[in-house]
Write a structure and sequence with these properties.
The complex is a heterotrimer of chains A (137), B (501) and C (115). Chain A is mostly helical. Chain A has one domain (4-135). Chain A has 6 helices and 2 strands. Chain A has a two-stranded antiparallel ribbon with strand order 1-2. In chain A, β1 and β2 (105-110) form a beta hairpin. In chain A, 36% of the residues are buried. With 501 residues, chain B is mainly α. Chain B starts with a helix and ends in a 5-residue tail after the last helix. Chain C has 115 residues and is mostly helical. Chain C has a single domain (2-50, 68-108), classed as Orthogonal Bundle (Helix Hairpins), CATH 1.10.287. Helices cover 64% and strands 0% of the residues of chain C. Chain C has helices at residues 2-21, 25-46, 71-102. In chain C, α1 packs antiparallel against α2 and α2 (25-46) runs antiparallel to α3 (71-102). The longest helix of chain C has 32 residues, at 71-102. In chain C, 27% of the residues are buried. The chains are: A mainly alpha (137), B mainly alpha (501), C mainly alpha (115). Chain B binds chain C through residues 130, 134, 137, 141, 144-145, 148, 151-154, 156-161, 163-164, 167-168, 171, 174-175, 177-179, 181-183, 185, 187, 230-232, 234-235, 289, 292-293, 298, and chain C through 20, 25, 28, 32, 35-36, 38-39, 42-43, 45-48, 70, 72-73, 76, 79-80, 83, 86-87, 90-91, 94-95, 97-98, 101-102, 107, 110-115.
């Protein structure tokens, strides 16, 4: 689509969408949000870019094949279950590690967060695989 | 121990992830997938051994206690099915080395079969009814893509039917599951079994059971819900057909056996009569369909349906021997049916056609292939001393013991017709001379590729012979599995533990 | 409220089946999706409609409020929606490709693989 407004907007909105999607993914741990919705938002940014500039440019902006995103996402989801093996508790049992970061305070990393990151990446990957392959017709 | 129960699901998953991350290296994909299936086989055999030794094993995912969390259970029936799945995956992986072209690898054939295997193993191992639905969907999504991979015209036509019918079945399953949850407020299979025994409301469980029966029946391809199968199974490449024939309908049968032994036992007399009637019709329509066909893979597709009838028959008779016979039949059928689809693929490579009329002369040119075909085909028809004989023997003996004479008669009659259409394949494709006017096809299959393709065929044929000759240990395991299935208290006890009894 | 929803579910199932029986392949997809939505609504209704508080544990408490809605049907429906979203995406690609290879959207002309 050769609309100047859309093209300018798509370029500016891409980073904003991605930042918002990451915020939504992170807040999903204790509040509404999460990897799935975050992934949808991030993917919609690229889909908007695809509508404005075409699929070739959208692929260039993504910098990698969306299939790798699926692979990475699934690897994260699997990885979130691995720590539970090391202490011989059931698969995907939730584990916490708490750090103390200077000037910030306590910061907890949990295995569900890794799982959510996996969902986030997988959703982006699956959506963009489908949309790009349809757009390439 | 925790790791072992879940690993039949995790290993194909890990393999799929590695394959996705190495997507550009097409030449190594097949080897990675092969290694993955070898590891799966080792792990699942060790799971079976553990299950035989120490009874029903279970693990609570995420450490949420039952009945609130998702349970993964491995009883003998599940463990046997997982071993068979791993065996099928190994043979399909070897066969796919030659059968699958670069174009299909490029579209992700190997990651997809591993995800399919993950779904199948998940469905066999899960102890949670909603989780079963999710595994069904995992399995279906990858099978949808495998079905259309390559994008030929007939694949598209077959896929539309396959996808539609399977989605309707999923919707019915989900509806039944929702009603069941609304009624008794639990999704854990052991808890469902416990609660339904305590509070039997026959009207609700009856309608729910029927919804489940129809949903699983569509997946298992029973009469009159099978029409998607012969319309679609002969369209994808032979290795995909073989994988589907070996695994997908069997998951439907597994779910039927599991749900109708574990929790839908209230209205037993009605359902058992009903199942026996359905089984008879399934056998007959399947075998008559096969007798009227002259396309190699369509004959085999109709035979899948007729053999599903035998498994349902065992479930309908519902004695320990009958259930054991059904399990034995499942094992035997996975082996021989997959093998016959493999052979059809090799024949296609050699002669360029699946039409029996255009084939011929294969016994003279490829004796080993012919011998393996004879073994598998006669095993399917149930001739002694092959695996199919003992499977049918157990079922028929159980039928005679419980005095279900009509179904025994139908089963024997269908066996004869099965033999007829197997002999038809033998006579048309292997024994008669090559029809001279259609001799212009030049096979591109090199000698080395032929040997690679024949390895899995030989493995499965030898297995059919081995099961036939040394059937006793396997039959003992099947009897043990059946007695576990018919005593659901064990299952409930081992999952819910100190739950009020 | 249950009665209204029951009629709505029935209507959705009927509409879904009707659309699936049409000859157009696009209407087949629409019918399947309507059936999926009807099923979701069925789970929602069968799970019990409670006019009560959300099942969230307030800060400082250890259990949710005494009368709370059952969160599990929603979780099931959410999963089912996500799955049907994936299936819908696949169906659209399939229908598109099928239209390209076969050259028709008439289901009556897709009989090549029936016996």
């Amino acid at each position: 689509m050769r609309s100047l407004i859309l093209r300018t907007a798509a370029r500016q909105l891409l980073p904003i969408f991605i930042i918002i999607s990451i915020i939504i993914m992170l807040r999903g741990h204790n509040a509404p949000g999460g990897g799935f919705i975050g992934g949808l938002i991030a993917a919609s940014a690229y889909i908007l870019y695809d509508i404005a500039y075409g699929v070739v440019d959208a692929r260039r902006v993504l910098r990698m094949d969306p299939l790798y995103l699926i692979g990475l996402g699934l690897a994260c989801a699997l990885g979130s279950g691995i720590p539970s093996f090391l202490i011989d508790s059931p698969f995907t049992a939730q584990e916490w590690i708490t750090f103390t970061i200077p000037f910030y305070g306590k910061f907890a990393v949990t295995s569900p967060l890794v799982f959510d990151l996996g969902v986030y990446l997988t959703v982006i990957g699956v959506l963009l695989t489908i949309v790009f392959s349809l757009a390439e017709e | 121990m925790n790791v072992l129960i879940i690993s039949p699901v995790i290993i194909p998953f890990t393999t799929a992830i590695i394959l996705l991350l190495l997507f550009k290296l097409k030449s190594v994909q097949r080897y990675i997938s092969l290694i993955g299936s070898l590891v799966s086989l080792g792990i699942s055999i060790s799971l079976l051994v553990h299950t035989i030794d120490s009874g029903i094993l279970s693990v609570q995912i995420g450490n949420w206690p039952a009945p609130y969390g998702i349970t993964i259970v491995s009883d003998l029936f599940s463990a046997i099915m997982v071993v068979m799945t791993a065996l099928m995956s190994l043979t399909v992986n070897i066969y796919s080395m030659i059968d699958i072209d670069t174009k299909r690898i490029q579209y992700g054939y190997f990651p997809l079969i591993n995800i399919l295997l993950m779904g199948v193993n998940g469905a066999f191992l899960t102890g949670d009814i909603f989780n079963l639905y999710v595994w069904f969907e995992v399995m279906l999504m990858s099978s949808f893509v495998l079905m259309v991979l390559g994008g030929e015209r007939k694949q598209m036509e077959g896929a539309v039917k396959y996808v539609t019918l399977n989605l309707i079945s999923s919707a019915l399953f989900l509806a039944g599951l929702g009603i069941l949850y609304g009624e008794i407020g639990t999704l854990n299979m052991a808890d469902i079994a416990y609660t339904l025994r305590a509070t039997a409301d026959a009207t609700v469980t009856g309608s729910t059971a029927m919804l489940f029966f129809i949903a699983f029946g569509i997946k298992a391809a029973i009469f009159p819900l099978f029409f998607w199968l012969p319309a679609s199974y002969h369209t994808p490449p032979a290795s995909v057909s073989a994988l589907f024939a070996g695994l997908l309908t069997k998951v439907g049968v597994y779910s039927l056996i599991r749900s109708f032994t574990l929790f839908f036992v209230q209205d037993a007399t009605f359902f058992h009569e009903f199942m026996i009637i359905i089984a008879g019709f399934t056998m007959l329509t399947g075998v008559l369909g096969a007798a009227s066909q002259f396309e190699f893979r369509r004959v085999l597709s109709f035979h899948i349906i007729s053999q599903i009838g035998y498994m349902i028959m065992g479930l309908g008779i519902f004695t320990p021997l009958a259930i054991a016979g059904s399990i034995f039949f499942l094992i035997h059928n996975m082996i021989t049916k997959t093998n016959l689809f493999f052979i059809s693929g090799v024949v296609y490579r050699l002669k360029g056609s699946y039409e029996l009329k255009k084939l011929g002369g294969l016994y003279a040119s490829h004796p080993w292939l012919s011998i393996f075909l004879v073994i598998s085909a006669f095993s399917l028809a149930g001739l002694p001393p092959l695996s199919g004989f003992w499977a049918k023997f157990a079922l028929i003996k159980a039928g005679l013991q419980s005095q279900d004479y009509p179904i025994v008669f139908i089963a024997l009659f269908v066996s004869m017709l099965t033999l007829f259409s197997m002999v038809k394949i033998w006579a048309e494709a292997f024994w008669k001379k090559q029809p001279s006017q259609k001799n212009d096809f030049k096979s591109k299959l090199s000698a080395r590729d032929y040997i690679v393709m024949i390895i899995p065929i030989g493995m499965l044929a030898l297995l059919a012979v081995a099961i036939g000759i040394g059937f006793e240990p396997l039959m003992n395991i099947c009897m043990k599995a059946a007695s576990q299935l018919l005593n659901p208290e064990l299952y409930i006890q081992s999952i819910l533990g100190g739950y009020p009894k | 409220m249950e009665t209204v929803l029951a009629f709505l579910i029935g209507f959705l199932y009927a509409a879904g089946v009707y659309a699936m029986l049409r000859r157009s392949i696009i209407k087949l997809v629409i019918g399947l999706m309507l059936m999926g939505q009807a099923t979701n609504l069925l789970i929602f209704t069968a799970g019990g409609l409670t006019r009560a508080q959300a099942p969230l544990v307030e800060p400082g408490q250890t259990i949710p409020p005494a009368i709370h809605a059952d969160p599990l049907p929603e979780a099931l429906i959410l999963t089912a929606i996500v799955i049907s979203f994936g299936v819908l995406a696949f169906m659209l690609v399939l229908v598109h490709r099928a239209y390209q290879t076969v050259g028709t959207d008439d289901l009556d002309k897709l009989k090549g693989t029936d016996s």
